[in-house]
Amino acid sequence: MTYRKSDKQTNKSHYGCAVEAALDVIGNKWKGVILFHLLSGTKRFNELRRLIPNVTQRMLTLQLRELEKDSIIIRTVYPQIPPKVEYSLTGFGQSLKPVISSLKEWGTIIMERENA
Predict the structure, then answer these.
(1) Which of 29, 72, 113, 116 could form a disulfide with 67 if both were Cys (CB 3.0 to 4.6 A apart)?
(2) Contact criterion met (CB below 8 Å) for 50 and 35
(3) What CATH number has the domain bearing residue 50?
(4) Computed over its alpha carbons, how large is the radius of gyration of the chain?
């Protein structure tokens, strides 16, 4: 799990509530979008770049690393030339499906309200 710097020093979690803990792991602007696209199956890095055109390569790399560190996704590297790297959800990551689906539904409502 990703903890605040002070938590790493004491090796304990000091979240005020469970929502804070959850948002610490998936609360970044791009993490939810990455997870949404991985819900439909394994994706390669460039495939994610095409699906999320507004994210920079550096930011996508950083977010994927954090999600991997938090055991949400798994990175599989195939020993070939050129290198092939795929990203997929872990079992723990799959447990986010209802959360991401609910966020998508709520986001759709927000977008409809803005266009009304």
Answers:
(1) 72
(2) no
(3) 1.10.10.10
(4) 16
C-beta pairs of 67-71 under 8 Å, 24+ apart in sequence: 67/31, 67/34, 67/35, 67/93, 69/2, 70/1, 70/2, 70/25
Beta strand 84-89 pairing with 43-44: antiparallel
Per-residue model confidence as pLDDT tens digits over 71-112: 999 999 999 998 899 999 999 999 999 999 999 999 999 999
> How many domains are contained in the chain?
1
As beta bridge partners, residue 78 has 84
Q: What is the pLDDT of residues 54-72, one digit of tens each?
A: 999 999 999 999 999 999 9
pLDDT in tens, 2-50: 454 444 444 456 788 988 888 888 888 899 999 999 999 999 999 999 9
Domain enclosing residue 91, as ranges: 5-115
57 token code pair: 């390569």
Beta-strand pair 73-78/43-44: unpaired
